[in-house]
Structures are given as structure tokens and as C-alpha cells.
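Lesson 9: reading folded outputs for more than one chain in a single document. The general rule is that every protein is listed as its sequence immediately followed by its C-alpha cells, and records are never interleaved. Here is the first one.
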Amino acid sequence: MFTASKILMIKPAAFGYNEQTASTNSFQKKTSNISPQSALNEFDSMVNILEHAGIEVMVINDTLYPTKPDAVFPNNWFSTHLNNTCFIYPMLHHNRRIERRMEILERLGYNSENIIDLSYLENEGEILEGTGSLVLDHQNKIAYAALSPRTTTKALNCFSEKSGFEVISFRAYDRYHQPVYHTNVVMALTPALAIIGLDIVAPDDREKLIESFKNTQKEIITLSALQIENFAGNMLCLRNKNNELFLIMSQSAYQSLSPEQVNKISEKHKIISIAIPTIESIGGGSVRCMMAELF
């Protein structure tokens, strides 16, 4: 199956506003009232909701030291693949690089023989932040990637060479005319759908995306810039133990969708929406960022 039925999530030990990443993530909102307990409550609720739907969740506790404010977003430092390989990725900001924990990969059954480590690219200033940078169509072996300081061309080429995925890169910009920090904020894929903020994609890049989606038989649902800001692009399709397909999104994402968009999605997949307002606003990432697929 090309859709994961098991995910890994990291329960945060020191969730908070990351000053380092704020320079490249306009979705983060700084506030004097940060509640780590609220983030923990949101995390626990999300795990319970997913497990109740029959999706297997492996929870790993973050370590208190060194402090890792973004540890709740593990999909940026590793990804697993259908051929029993695991990629480790180069990350832009120093206090995110310390999130990489080899003992987690060992628990998952990976070792030097099936781990492909691209983190050395950091020394060359080349960055690729996992399935934040890459939205992967596993069935067709296509990797979609929005270029940004966190997603560079050389790193993409290295991933393509090692993985066999064709890379389709494009440019997308936020309201401040800065590159959107991660591809998985701009778009999401399911076996049947391509859900994407085409309005914020550079005009010269739109046609190649549309053509690729048509060639892979995906119906396109176009999101507005405002819906992207509400994390409507940050969704993940998962399969439960009964082989039912669910599209996981945040409550803010769901509430931003039009009735027509909800109907189109519901024709193909069941929807699960989860409230994570603290993690979204302080962390600048949503539910998809919190889930690392385990194939």
C-alpha cells in the first residue's frame, strides 16, 4: 500500500517559540503567553483521536536536554520509505539539528545498511527538511518541492539520485513575498486528490504542477492564500487497520474550507479534524508536521 497506516509522533518536553526558525517561518506567532501544558494537551488529544480511528501511533518522548522547542515536528529530520530505507535530512537551523536521535531509528529497525544520511549537506549550506520540504507521491515516485532557504536545489538532486524519485520543484510565496518555508504548507496529496494553494505558486510554475497532477489522475482542489495561512495545505492521508482512508487536518484548516471543498474531499476520504491552536500558532506548523509516516 502507498499510504501509511502507522505514524511516529514525538511528545514534546520543551515546546516553545523557536527564535531561530522564526526568520524563515512567517506562520510562527510570538506571544508572551506560551503554555507548554496546552501543547501537551493538544498532543495527547491528537494521539487519542487518531488511535480511536484505528490508526497506529508510536509515541516517543522528547528528551528534556538539549532543549528542542520544535521536537514535536519529527517529519523534518527523517522519512521512511516503501523499500525499507530511511533518509536523514540536512536542516537549516542549529537547534533543529539536535532533534535527530539515532536511537529512535534503531528502535524502528534501521541501521547503517538501510539509512541514507544526507545531513552532511549542512556543511555545504544545502538544506532539505524531510517531508516538510518534500511532498511525496510514493505510488508514482514523484517528489514535489517548493524552493526556499529550507529546500535547496542541490539537496533535492541528491535526494532524487539516492531515492529514485523524480523531483518537481516550484516557487511559492507568502503574503510578505517571501518563499513559503515548507512545501507541506502549500500542498497535500492523497491517492485521489492534489490539494494545493495554486494562488501562491509562481505563475510560471503552475502549469507543470497541473500537468503532473493530471498525469497521475489526481483531482485538483485549489486553496486560497487565506486557507493556506490557516494550514489547509498541511494535511496527511493515512490508512487505518480496516484499510479506510482518512485525511487528517487541523480544526483551523477544516473551518477554512468551503462546503464545496469539504464535499469533494468527503467523496474520496473520511475527514478527521483536530484542534491544535497552541502548536499551530507558536510552532508555525500543523498536524501533518507532527506525523512521521512509518512504512
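And here is the second record, again sequence then C-alpha cells.
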Amino acid sequence: MTTNIKLAWRNLWRNKRRTLITVSSIFFGVLLSAYMTSMQEGSYSKMVEIVVKFYSGYMQVHHEDYWENKSINNSFDYDQAMINKLKFHPEVNFVIPRLESFGLASAEELTRGAAIFGIVPDVEDQLTGIAGKISSGKYLQANDDGVVIGDGLARFLKLQVNDTLVIITQGYHGISAAGKFAVLGLIKHVSPEFNKSIIYMELKTCQSFLGADNKLTSLVVNVAGNDAMNRTMKNLKQEIKSPYSVMSWEEMQPEIVQQIESDRAGGVIMKAILYIVIAFGILGTIMMMIAERRREFGVMISIGMQKSKLAGVLFIETLFIGLLGIISGIAVSLPLIFIQAKNPVPLTGETAKLMEDFGFEPYMFFSTAPEVFWQQAISIFIISALIGIYPIVSTLKIKEIKALRG
């Protein structure tokens, strides 16, 4: 076997130009495929991060009627026993109580719809890290009676820190809720959509304002990732009974899941076309090599070399060509993609505006997940192995007399 490998390696470099051209085609295919996959997975990861880390968490517990009709009337009592029950699961990192509502935010003659979040400041910061995103003023403290608002909302309403914000909404069981709140801080929210509409209040202040004492609309349950979420969800679905329900972020945001799946399917088609081009490039080289060396093969078989051994050498040559392209492609794509992951590409013009309209940051993000690289390596290796069948079949069908005459 060692002799076959040495022969295959030496044969490759008997025609360096042909070998390098083929390896180059595989190299660029791997590079482009890895780059495209990284860009796709990076955008998916950012979408999920915005949904999970800056809003929903991986799971939420609600009243069973809340998600279909997001009314404060479908809230439930703050229950420490329920929170302790959720925290008992080993993969649960923390549980965050919230009271959410919607209302009109006003200043002078300006008015805009807003999302109102009643939060426990230090607990909420564990998930969203919003304390570090304060662009002006200060973050909420326990028992604060002011608000922190998105700086996009502040710009629209022409508000600054220490100005007064008027909020008008409907409280618990239809009571009218209107109040004036000092703007304690402005937050640069990672979601452009939230940045234009978010209002954070301390939980007790929000409960009092909405006439919903000791009420919550959700308990955000956070875990390490999707795998941990799937394991924990199975247990929680069995434990959480009516009038409560537990939902994963995928159930709460099905449009995000559908968008990722449809876009990923489009990416598979593009990569399939790229792989077909690579496959024909390798196949063309192998066919040309077999045709050029037919007389050589005839001589080798005539002097006693077994056809099976010759076929094995040619198969190894094909694998070597694929491996060289894979290794060089991965070697170049690794540092390139790691640099891109650290420095997302900013988008401008209409593309940036479109991204912001959909609630996403106007950047092109990249992923350094291992599957970005090994998927390309395995795909090209399989293609090379399949193409390697051709020289085996061709060699086994060689007629020595015809080959010598060729």
C-alpha cells in the first residue's frame, strides 16, 4: 500500500501544470463554498441572537391564552414556587420575570406606539446585557419610577435624559393607564425595530402603572443553547400544566425559522451547482490523464503489473488531487473567515435600509462554526472518491494490445 501511495504522489507531479490547475479549481470551490456557508450561518446566528438574547430567551412560560392574544388580562400571579421549579432543572441558567404591554408614548405633539417592558433590572441584564448598551443617562435600579427608552424612540419624540415621557395605554381589566415618567437613560438597542419603540420600566413601577399588582405576562427561561433547550423543553412540557404553557423561541418566532430554512435551501442549491462545476473539473482532468497515459498503462500491464494495482494507484491519485484542493482551500478560508467574523461587513444604501426595516442590524455577519469547514471538506472528498471510480473502471477494461498501439 505504501508503494502505491508513493507512485500516486510522484505521478501527480509528472504533469505539474495539469495537477495545479485541477487543485486550483477545487481550492476556489472550497473557498467560495466555505465563505458562502459562513455568511449564511453568520446571518442565521445573528437573527437567532437578536430574538433569543435581546428579547425572548430560549423559552418562555405564559398563561395558556396569552400568546394568541397578547393582552395583559391574560397575565398570571408572580409565583416564586414556579420560578424555583424552573430553576431546579440543571440546564436552566436563570429565570426572568416580565410584564409586557403596548401603549402610546408622547412628548409635546409627537406620539408613537411603544412596547412597554416591566423588568427586574439586574435579572434582565443577565440575558440582554442592556446595562452595557446605555448610550446616555443611567440604567434602571430597583424601585426606580423613571424609564429607559430606545434612542430611536427618543430621537423621534425629541427627548433627552431627564425629560418627561407621557405614556397612555389600557391597563389590567380595561382600566385607563396614563402617566408621566422621567427619562433616566437612553439605550442603543441591537434591534433597530426595538430601538424605535422600546420602553423599560422597573417591574413594580410597571405593575402599579398598569394596575396589575403582582402580575406577570411571562417568565423567560434561559439555557445555554438550542440543544439544551430541546432537552429541557421535553421535561417542561410534561411538568407545566394548565393554566400555564411553555413555548420555545422557535414556536414564538416561526417566521424566523421559516426564513432560515428557506434561505438555507437556496444556499444548498447554489452549493450544489458549485460542486457540480468542481466535479466536472476533476472528472475532465482524470479523463484527460487516462487518455494521455493509455500507452503507459498498456506497457505497465504488459510487463506484469496487475490491473487492480494500477487502478488502485489511479484512485489514490484522484483522492490526492481532491485532498490537496481541500487542504489548501480550508487553510486559506480559515483565517479569512475568522477575520470577517471579527469585523462584520457594514451594508449601505437601500440594502441597509431594507435590513433595518426587517429589524436586523445592517451588517454582513460570518460564522466560524466547525461545520462551515468540515461540510465542504467531506463534500469534496466524497465527490473525489466517486470520480475515482472512473479510472478504476477504465483501467480494468484496458486491452493491452489496443493500449500499446495507442
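What the second record shows: DSSP finds 16 helices and 14 strands in the chain.
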